[in-house]
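Chain A, query sequence.
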Amino acid sequence: MSEANENILGVKELILSKDVLHTAEASASLGQVHKAKTTDGHPVAVKVQRPDIRKLVEVDLEILLHLASMVERHVEGADIFRLSDVVREFARVLDKELDYTIEASHMEHFAWQFEGTPRSTCRWCTVISLATAS
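Chain A, predicted structure.
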């Protein structure tokens, strides 16, 4: 995990930075997942949003919306596809995807549903929420 990512989320205060591997375990749609340990030694996965991803997505969506509206105006019959509406729906879904607190809420609900389940059956049920920078 890069120094920039550690500083963006305040991970250094919550995770032992020496235990965070510098290479990602997985690449997520808008970020990366790193192995880490809590200060008490509990292994966790930390999903870190790519720096400036929200701004990059906004710019890309503006371009898509502009292209969709141009096609609707200049290509006969294209209006039946409602491309601008498709782009707006895509933007709405991406906005939710960029909000990691929604995912954390789903994980907390999942953990609650499996509370009391033996860890050998549900080893991913412990949820630790990290506040994300907006």
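Confidence is low (pLDDT under 50) at residues 4-14, 124-134. The two ends are 19 Å apart (CA to CA).
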